[in-house]
Amino acid sequence: MTPATTTEHTAAGTAHRRVEGRDKVTGAARYAAEIPLAGLAHGWLVGSTVARGRVRSVETAPVLAMPGVLTVLHHGNTARVTTDYVTVLGTSPDPTAAVFQHDQVQHMGWPVALVVAETPEQAREGAEALVVHYDEEPHDTAFSGDRADAYPLDSMGQPAVTDKGETEAELAASAVVVDACYTTPENHHNAMEPHAATVRWDGGRLDVIDSNQSAAWIQSELANMFSLDPQSVRVRSEHVGGAFGGKGVRAHQVAAALAARALGRPVRVAMTRRQMFALIGYRSPTAQRIRLGADADGRLRALQHDSLNQTSTVHEHVEASAGVSRVGYDAAAHRTAQRVVRLDVPTPTWMRAPGEAPGSFALESAMDELAAECGIDPIELRMRNEPERGPVSGLPFGSRRLPDCFREGARRFGWADRDPRPGVRRDGRRLLGTGTAAASFLAMAMPATAAVTAEADGTFTVRIGAADVGTGARTALTLIAAEALRTAPDRVRMRIGDSDFGPAWGAAGSMGTRSWAWAITDAVAALRERLAGGAGIPPEGVTARSDTSGSVFGLAPRERRAYGAQFAEVAVDPGTGEVRVRRLLGIFAAGRIVNPLTARSQLTGGMIWGISMALHEEAVRDPVSGGHVGADLAGYHVAAHADIPAVEADWVDDPDPEDPVGIKGVGEIGVVGVAAAVANAVWHATGVRHRHLPLRPDRVLTAPPAA
Amino acid sequence: MREFGYERAADVEGALALLGTDPEARYLAGGTNLVDLMKTGVARPVRLVDIRELPLDRIEVTEAGGLRIGATVTNSDLAAHPEVRSRYPALAQAVLAGASGQLRTMATVGGNLLQRTRCAYFTDGAGPCNKRLPGSGCPAIEGEHRNHAVLGASGHCVATHPSDMAVALAAFDAVVSYATADGPGELPLAELYPPVGDTPQVETALPPGALITGVTLPPAPVAARSRYRKVRERASYAFAIGSAAAALDVQGGVVREVRLALGAVASRPWRARAAERALTGGPATEEACTAAADAELAAARPLPGNAYKVPLMRNLVVALLTELAEEAPR
């Protein structure tokens, strides 16, 4: 297979503004909590005020007497749903979303009731007035790297442990050893649009207008939970204001569906920002240990990476941070392990660059430490350990242009002029430093179906269960369809975000656009064959369909990844501990770039996410209550505009030879490596290593001075 | 949100009459703090008396050469005012260091003085807090207190006052004017905020029902060379983890006059009198500035999580004072 060549219609590959951009900036685009519906009632979730225990009683009577209140759902009066099924991802479901099924409270903010009223204000007032009595039990929310009750856990086909070669012997034979522990805190997605679902039962069919990253995924989960045929569930999500891994099946859809059935009315449930901190998943804190053993010339003999994260008592989730060390660098011996510890906390979930974001902080920091120990330039060190095949899997790589990313990045950043000595550059009272890190992220595809219709008026309609979570996917797919159809983008109608369009992978794993584009180009190819006869197009049009399951699952095993090189310059005020990033450059090899305008936004957005992860983001849990402290955007800091310097993202040419369009995916790789590049730059500025995120002023200020 | 009454006052007398002695009623100015607290249920006033249209929005130079600032002057207008910028530059800088442009356009001087702590145990609205639910305990002492007080706190509360503006006002001996049904009154800013003690819920010394009408700054030639510096966890739109307003008059290498107030370290803007005493009349050297900072911070009683504030404030004060000293005309 070869990448598509451009035609007279050079739609893909050139910058296009979002096709729905005008609707969004004028407010014409409607989100899940804005769709008007006759007879709509509003539900408000009530979260537990204890971190562990049982609901003894719910005082519904006073709330039912409040103005506008229609019902109060809780475990004592709610229909049962099914939680014993296998999800589309091949896993057991997180039972957290199956609300009001029992009296147990498994974390602070656990949904214990839904107050439904005529208006959202009445529902909220009822929810805040609802008295729930608990039998509280002692809780344990203390995450740390030395939990004796941690255990290894496989994750999504990845084994918990890999062991190749003689790690201890290679370490013993190494001239230089780096052995360090790194920690990353609890991070939250904080999509701009809070979770919301508007749900009605329409003659036995469940109709869900929702904010999610895969209509088909939500359809499948709700069908399982409510024991319905998938065709009896319709999920629509035309516009989605950010997802980042957190917009799967959550309490709001299930609670709304239960309430709508109980009341025989449409019900909307929207979450508050604070509820999202407890109810939509998050990135677990991690504690990671890296051991690198190398010869004096920096060539690795041993690479060990152990990662620990927390999960809930009801569901297991691995933050697969050691995965980066299975594919990053060559070494005679590799040992990696991923473990979890069960705590009385919400179940963590995937969050933008899951595994790679925290894992790259540890590995790429350790590589920088090794470079300093060996007296080798950090980029040269990475080049010396560039693998020819998957270091653990032994599989061949797909295209791997990491060295080209470093070369181009170094040239643009001015790396060649860098003085490697730490702590010697000043600008007034501030210390200056630069740092770099490698980035990589899975570049895979998943099955999708699509339908393309040639309309009688000469235009085309594409229907696919894709999700545009704000990335520009709808526009990218329009360009891809136009290119394949050899027509202009404005002659293509792109219909997405509807489970009635058939099964499709979601906006997840940096695989959305690639997976959908594959299905669209397959359907276009079938359509062109149908139209090749030259017969006229009937009034209902001519439609061709595709299903890429065979092609996608037929790919031979390889290490398929996108790559990048991150460069950061920081200024550190040693008197106050303030770290500010002055420059950030990322050069990526991430497949063919379909729409440079939105792809660049994806990449720079990821890099900004990385700055935020490096310097600001951290959810804090109170040791006594077991709940969050300051769970809102006042307490949980994300980078403000003033924190963001000149951020530049660009790419080297890297069309994926196995993909019909040449795509790899750009949704997540921008995040990877940024925190390490920033921390490495802080070391270069100050001479002090920081191994715990975020790099807060108090940490920088009180760190012991460099030896 | 609970339903609440809303009335708009046209003048001070009208505002006082509308509020009366109702403990459940509150004045509403910019609403940038009160409305947030109402949304989260931390504040549940039954009635609001909107004072935004009161004729208290002027900034005037007093006969003595100070400034009289009306209570409903917005933060934006205060920071942009030429007399503020030239006579008390640290005040303009402090105001600009706070919040965002949008918030500064709404927020007022009177409201700024009376804003509530951003301690998350207070603003979260659930769980114990001696300010919100007197006698329920202070979870910050055992819990998250990275940005809590190191000076003047008590075992009942370690919250800080969040205002930047008030720190500069404290350095310049501001006097707060207020009106009550029984007539007007005045309080030095230093006396507006009572010590925490065992009554952290008592946040001001204003009589019940009092309405702040303005702030008067006495003339202070030293303030013409003053500066405000704010340290925070991100570059903008965050409360201080430490801040300082300083003014310095150095002649012939000798400190003639110094003003210093610290922010984010106490339940009130902290006038650093001990540091001022240590420095006045002595040399304007880095050593002297360090000794002065240490004299003030000797009273610090940090908790494990905020011990960093002591070196932070020392560094901040020394950097700020030595910078002002170096810039002094010779």
Automatic annotation (TrEMBL), chain A:
Residues 1-21 are annotated as: Disordered. It comes from the Bacteria. Residues 26-138 form the Aldehyde oxidase/xanthine dehydrogenase a/b hammerhead domain. Keywords: Molybdenum, Oxidoreductase. Pfam families: Ald_Xan_dh_C, MoCoBD_1, MoCoBD_2. The keyword Oxidoreductase applies. Residues 1-14 have a biased composition (Low complexity). SMART domains: Ald_Xan_dh_C. GO terms for molecular function: iron ion binding; oxidoreductase activity. This is Xanthine dehydrogenase family protein molybdopterin-binding subunit.
From TrEMBL, chain B:
SMART domains: CO_deh_flav_C. GO terms for molecular function: FAD binding; oxidoreductase activity. Residues 1-222 form the FAD-binding PCMH-type domain. Coiled coil: none annotated. Keywords: Oxidoreductase. PROSITE patterns: FAD_PCMH (PS51387). Pfam families: CO_deh_flav_C, FAD_binding_5. This is Xanthine dehydrogenase family protein subunit M. It comes from Streptomyces boncukensis.
